[in-house]
Amino acid sequence: MTARVAPEYPWLLPSALTADPAAGHPRRTTRDWVVDTIVFLLALGYVWVARWDARQPEPYLVGELLGPRWLLPLDVVLSLVFCGALWVRRRWPVALAVASLPLSLFSVVGVVVLVIVVFTVTVHRRFLVAAAVVVGHSLTNLVYVLLRPDSSMSYWETVLFGECFIAAVFAWGMFVRARRQLVVSFRDRAHRAETEQRLRVAQARQLERTRIAREMHDVLAHRISLLSLHAGALEFRPDAPPEEVARAAGVIRASAHQALEDLREVIGVLREEAPDAPPERPQPTLRDLSALVAESRDAGMRVTLCSGVVEPESAPPGIARSTYRIVQEGLTNARKHAPGAAVTVTVTGGPGAGVRTEIVNRESVSAPATPIPGTGTGLVGLAERASLAGGRLAHGRTDSGDYRLEAWLPWSA
């Protein structure tokens, strides 16, 4: 069942538009109390005025309506009782309408009460129930005209007038009911649209956090592999000159500090976003490839960069970021599995032709004494990233024994 939308000013709307039907009978709103009070005073005032107008010699007159004198006290008493019963008309409208059928056989001073009762049933109950109540009151109209003949009209003219009056009340109630249903439908539709929009925004944020976390995983793997490489060099050459030891220690310290910063970002993006969260740091571009290669060279890798991208500054952010991550993962894998081997990074392409990235490393002559640990899912993530971007990725050994990682990403002209 669709939940109701809490209006900005609920006291200005009927309880039928602000309550959840599953919660049972809705509580009266301020508007309901005001309307019920006005309805009660209107019905009570009409009973009082009509009672004084009906004090005529027998047979007494109310306008042009005739009737025996003994009906007046009964009419007034029952009309007053039903005036008080109007306070429960929202909760038991059908029961009140059925109970008022005897009154509708002869009542003159309770006309307003009967109109309000029929109108309430029409507004608050489905069509078949309201139609049955209206038919019942229409039948009592035949008896009413016999007990209250009109001296100015014939019997059937009076009956036709009464039936038209009842039909008008029924039509008015159906119009109000249809209008309320339309308002409820619009409110539910607006609530559903707002809920779907919130879900879409939450999903987009979650996907973005997942994407950033994956990128941070690649960055962390790159940093930690640099740490392992420098630490392995110090372990392999404990008798190195103090200058080299100091330089390697500085690189390890800087890489460790940067790895901690990257880890802090990973944890931050996986948490719920705060409204005043700081903006993300600038994402890498194709121009940052030279800095990435230089960082690997400082770690002792033999890396050659061949860049032939046309207009690299105009590359789409997604393509530039994915290319950077592919090169980063390729260099990390080369450090893990082929330490000391020469690596060639080639990035070419441009608008219309796409961006082609190739990382080739020679087969290592010696395996690392302590292999760098890894999850083995880096290439899987790269393949998924390339596929989502509309490109492709391939990797494996070449005929000459080298290991090649190749990717192509589309770049619209």
Task: Describe the secondary-structure layout.
Elements: H1 15-18, H2 30-53, E1 60-62, E2 65-67, H3 71-85, H4 93-99, H5 111-124, H6 127-147, H7 155-236, H8 242-270, H9 289-298, E3 302-309, H10 317-337, E4 342-350, E5 354-361, H11 378-388, E6 392-397, E7 403-409
Parallel strand pairs: 3-4
Antiparallel strand pairs: 1-2, 4-5, 5-7, 6-7
Helix pairs in contact: 2-3, 2-5, 4-5, 5-6, 5-7, 6-7, 7-8, 7-10, 9-10, 10-11
Please give a structural write-up.
The protein has about 425 residues and is of the alpha+beta class. It is built from 11 helices and 7 strands. The chain has helices at about 15-20, 30-55, 70-85, 95-100, 110-125, 125-145, 155-235, 240-270, 290-300, 315-335, 380-390, and strands at about 60, 65, 300-310, 340-350, 355-360, 390-395, 405-410. It has a 5-stranded mixed sheet with strand order 3-4-5-7-6. It is rod-shaped and about 125 Å long. It starts with 14 loop residues before the first helix and ends with a strand. The relative contact order is 0.06. The model is unreliable at about 1-15, about 20-25, about 55-65 and about 275-280 (pLDDT under 50).
Features:
single chain; 413 residues; alpha+beta; five-stranded mixed β-sheet; two-stranded antiparallel sheet; 11 helices; 7 strands; 11% strand; disordered N terminus
What would you call the shape? rod-shaped
The tally of strands reads 7
Order of helices and strands: HHEEHHHHHHHEHEEHEE
Mean pLDDT: 77
Major sheet: arrangement of strands: 3-4-5-7-6
Low-confidence stretches: 1-13, 18-23, 55-65, 274-279
Helix content: 55-70%
Number of helices: 11
Strand content: 5-15%
Radius of gyration: 43 Å
Query: What is the distance, rounded to the nearest whole angstrom, between the alpha carbons of the first and last residues?
Result: 50 Å
